Amino acid sequence: MKIALLGYGKMGKTIERLALESGHSIVFKSWVESSEGNIEDAEVAIEFSSPEAAVSNIKKALEADLPIVSGTTGWLESYDEMVKLCEKRNGSFIYASNFSVGVNLFFSINEYAAKLMAQWKEYDVSVEETHHLEKKDAPSGTAITIAENILKYNSKKEWNLDSTSDEVLSITAKREEDVKGTHIVSYESNIDTISLKHEAHSREGFAKGAILAAEWLKDKKGVFSMKDVLGLTNAD
Ligand SMILES: NC(=O)C1=CN([C@@H]2O[C@H](COP(=O)(O)OP(=O)(O)OC[C@H]3O[C@@H](n4cnc5c(N)ncnc54)[C@H](O)[C@@H]3O)[C@@H](O)[C@H]2O)C=CC1
Ligand SMILES: O=C(O)C1=N[C@H](C(=O)O)C[C@H](O)C1
């Protein structure tokens, strides 16, 4: 597979290494200052850039008729616009807040737990995420996905950072040196606490998942999710 890498930072470089090890080639890469290679030579684009750059990267790929896998977080107010553009161009598009297989299994476990716990009103649910110091957005995209899936079943109406209101699902975002990504969902009562935790040990899981998504998407048309790629279903 001939890959265009839009964004060549921590994730772009990890994807490059693992893609080359799997026999793929990188024919184009771009970062904030410059670019290398020809995007026209690519069969698929993978973009991990910044909240400010994601929309123009996705447009660039769709306008070049390239299937696009986007992992950048913090730009989702423009998601519907990108879906419309993909449909208009009869293109192919996957966004995931987290491409790792483990986190996507965690998403399914989280939905199952949210559905089960909804009837046990003595437990109050909260979400905590911890990431490295360079992370630009808070809360993480993964924490937002987790929170939105809990809200499908819980009586709380919305999520917010550091909320103290009973009506609101609180997300706490911590920043610590070199943490790759840790997410914890806690159900707390006066008697006990039930916690679900996912901890990434490296960026390889995110990168492998993005390459898997690109291989899966390459010959398809439409807008998909990692649930489609992995054949995962919802909690019911
Ligand atoms: N969905 C997932 O599985 C994962 C998502 N991420 C997300 O991916 C994004 C990138 O993460 P990292 O690689 O760790 O960041 P990074 O800061 O190490 O790299 C970002 C890259 O994007 C480039 N870039 C930034 N602004 C640009 C612009 N205006 N035009 C062109 N290139 C631009 C930078 O030059 C750099 O090469 C973040 O939003 C992060 O939250 C990170 C890991 C996993
Ligand atoms: O910025 C990161 O590093 C990560 N970002 C994603 C997010 O915002 O959820 C995924 C992963 O947790 C690493």
UniProtKB/TrEMBL annotation:
Q: Which GO terms describe its cellular component?
A: cytosol
Q: Which reaction does it catalyse?
A: (S)-2,3,4,5-tetrahydrodipicolinate + NAD(+) + H2O = (2S,4S)-4-hydroxy-2,3,4,5-tetrahydrodipicolinate + NADH + H(+); (S)-2,3,4,5-tetrahydrodipicolinate + NADP(+) + H2O = (2S,4S)-4-hydroxy-2,3,4,5-tetrahydrodipicolinate + NADPH + H(+)
Q: Where in the cell is it found?
A: Cytoplasm
- The protein's predominant localisation is cytoplasm
Domain Dihydrodipicolinate reductase C-terminal: residue ranges: 102-230
Q: Name one GO biological process term.
A: diaminopimelate biosynthetic process
Catalytic residues per the record? Answer: H131, K135
- Give yes or no: UniProt keyword Mitochondrion: no
UniProt entry keywords in alphabetical sequence: Amino-acid biosynthesis, Cytoplasm, Diaminopimelate biosynthesis, Lysine biosynthesis, NAD, NADP, Oxidoreductase
Which Enzyme Commission number(s) are on file for it? 1.17.1.8
Q: What is the uppermost EC class here?
A: oxidoreductase
- Give the signal sequence positions: none
- Associated pathway: Amino-acid biosynthesis; L-lysine biosynthesis via DAP pathway; (S)-tetrahydrodipicolinate from L-aspartate: step 4/4
Q: Where does (S)-2,3,4,5-tetrahydrodipicolinate bind?
A: H132, G141, T142
InterPro entries named among the record's database cross-references: DapB_C, DapB_N, DHDPR_bac, NAD(P)-bd_dom_sf
User: Where, in this chain's numbering, is NAD(+) bound?
Assistant: E33, G71, T72, T73, A96, S97, N98, F99
Q: Which Gene3D superfamilies match?
A: Dihydrodipicolinate Reductase, domain 2, NAD(P)-binding Rossmann-like Domain
What are this entry's molecular-function GO terms? Answer: 4-hydroxy-tetrahydrodipicolinate reductase; NAD binding; NADP binding; oxidoreductase activity, acting on CH or CH2 groups, NAD or NADP as acceptor
Domain Dihydrodipicolinate reductase N-terminal, by residue range, is 1-99
PANTHER family linked: 4-HYDROXY-TETRAHYDRODIPICOLINATE REDUCTASE 1, CHLOROPLASTIC-RELATED, DIHYDRODIPICOLINATE REDUCTASE
For this protein, the record's HAMAP family field holds: DapB
Q: Which family does it belong to?
A: Belongs to the DapB family.
Q: Could you tell me what this protein does?
A: Catalyzes the conversion of 4-hydroxy-tetrahydrodipicolinate (HTPA) to tetrahydrodipicolinate.
* Assembly information from the UniProt record: Homotetramer.
Its name, as the record gives it, is 4-hydroxy-tetrahydrodipicolinate reductase
Q: Which species is listed as the source? A: Aequorivita xiaoshiensis
